[in-house]
Amino acid sequence: MSLRPTVDFLLHDWLKVESLQSRERFADHSRETFDAVLDTCERIAREKYAPFNRLVDTQEPHFDGEKVILPQATHDAYKAYAESGMLSAAQDYEIGGMQLPYTVEAAANAFFAMASVSIGSGMLTSGNANLLMVHGTDLQKQVFAANEFSGRFSGTMCLSEPQAGSSLSDVTTRATPDGEGFEADALGARYRLKGNKMWISSGEHELSENIIHLVLAKIPDANGQLVPGVKGISLFIVPKKMVDTHGQLTGERNDVALAGLNHKCGWRGTTNTLLNFGEGKYPVRGDSGAVGYLVGKPGEGLRCMFHMMNEARIGVGMAATMLGMAGYYASLDYAKNRPQGRPSGAGGKDASRPQVRIIEHADIKRMLLAQKAYSEGALALALYCARLVDEQHTGTAEDADVARLLLEVLTPIVKSFPSEWCLEANSLAIQIHGGYGYTRDFPVEQYWRDNRLNMIHEGTHGIQAMDLLGRKVLMENGRGLQLLAERMLATAAKAETHWAPEAAALRDALKQVGQATQQAWAGAQPAEALANAVPYLQAFGHTVIAWIWLDVANSLGEDNSPAAQGRRAACRYFFRYELPKIGAWLNVVCSRDPTCADLPEEAF
């Protein structure tokens, strides 16, 4: 099956993306230009990515003592992606961008994520550059961001450390002023960094001319001590190779050294590294310490980094979604062609009759519908969030503020729902393949392995849950949650004519979520309120996807094509099989059930 009809439907029939052409920023665009971008990305993904998905899984990156070796296919894919202009697709014309709506950019990148998420399509590079466009100086934008947008440089984000994964307040990488006049360097206040960073995707390779690391580190106080907590964290640009103020390489290597390659369950085609900063292997101007240039103000590094982290969270959600979709298409094709079993009649099964294809069995249809409901629902949510980004950047002041708050609430969901449920979709794809699904003769086992990372990637499932219940639904007196509720109720009202039971179920689910939010915090301490944050996240996510599916169903009108029938069935499936689960999840939230939190470790 082709992804394109689904993307076209969601962009044009549901989100009405052509309406963005009325905005001054997108005035040069049309359905034709949008289609041209999608055509190009679909072709590159089909030719340069999909044929090599298994290759990069089996030929993992390796270090030859001097450099990291990747398959030629990865080099070819990176080159084709960079030359397509997609790294700067949403940027201004003046810096080589297309001024493309982010909604269209996100949809176009979906083709690469589905073809081979392991090869990657520049999420970190564009996210790195986008951060610098917001928080960097004019020269930092010219020297670093512009070269990342062109593909000449690539980018990373360096947060975690061996002793501090998600606990960023515990990072110990130090940044000390680099000599007299450090604050006057044209590229930014110049520091020397020393420390170790772990789980750095694309941290070492030969795909680009240079690698630009964005590194979180702490500047010691007057007594040489690191400031406790996240308020002491600053952000630095640390290039792999030193550059001048024109972005040209000076010929000197920065003091950043590969300490080792991590070998993961999935995403094996992506180099994942442990990096040592400032160990002295590559001294700069005779001294150890990796040279880094301050971004923003000292102590505000995490605030700056959240610009990239939130973008990455949406990207991870899209990656998880497309892996789910890839598994769905593979298992659908298998189910249509695999004969096994016979239908049951009044007298039982007649062994003399020919076998039927497994798609004719009700349980196979159940598993296919579940995959469709999870994956296509998640894709719709991701594109809806992308549309909010466009509204935030080009809408009226009031609409932009509404979009900002909706994104605050939905970001944990767009990251976490596909990370959990599109992984479940991949498990169902394996199940449909039976014993063959567990072998490498079919692609579904790789999709599952690749997807398993996403519940950890860019903020674990539990962190997303605490962010949602502990911050996002409470911020600005709950206004973001109220705005989301208004949109859900508007969808339910519109659905009364053709989807009355589903409209009532959505209202009830929304009421349950609201009550659970209040009861979780009713006189509770944070530890008590957040003890069951993950069930809250699951219930909230299911309510959001139910709303998305009902809104999609509303847009179908009188269309009775097979595709429309499939979407109506997916909507019904989600409301009848999935949404009822929220009651069990929210019961423990409302009661602030202490079963997990209170169990002493000796009892395990």
Summarize the structure.
The protein contains 19 helices and 14 strands.
Describe the structure.
The protein is built from 19 helices and 14 strands. With 604 residues, it is of the alpha+beta class. Strands 3, 4, 5, 6, 7, 10, 11 and 12 form an 8-stranded mixed sheet that branches. A two-stranded antiparallel sheet has the order 1-2. β13 (344-345) and β14 (348-349) form a beta hairpin. α5 (102-116) packs antiparallel against α9 and α6 (123-135) runs antiparallel to α7 (138-150). The mean pLDDT is 95.
The end-to-end span amounts to 47 Å
Percent helix? 40-55%
Instruction: List low-pLDDT spans.
Output: none
Percent of residues in beta strands?
5-15%
Oligomer: single chain
Overall pLDDT: 95
What characterizes the major β-sheet? Answer: 8 strands, mixed
Number of E-state strands = 14
Structural class: alpha+beta
The radius of gyration computed from the alpha-carbon positions, rounded to a whole number of angstroms, is 25 Å
Envelope shape: globular
| Count of separate DSSP helical elements | 19
Task: List the SSEs and their pairings.
Elements: H1 4-14, H2 31-49, H3 53-58, E1 62-63, E2 68-69, H4 72-84, H5 102-116, H6 123-135, H7 138-150, E3 153-158, E4 174-177, E5 190-201, E6 210-218, E7 233-239, E8 241-243, E9 249-253, E10 256-261, E11 272-277, E12 290-295, H8 301-337, E13 344-345, E14 348-349, H9 362-394, H10 397-433, H11 444-452, H12 461-472, H13 475-494, H14 500-521, H15 526-529, H16 533-555, H17 562-578, H18 582-590, H19 595-598
Parallel strand pairs: 3-6
Antiparallel strand pairs: 1-2, 4-5, 5-11, 5-12, 6-7, 7-12, 8-9, 10-11, 13-14
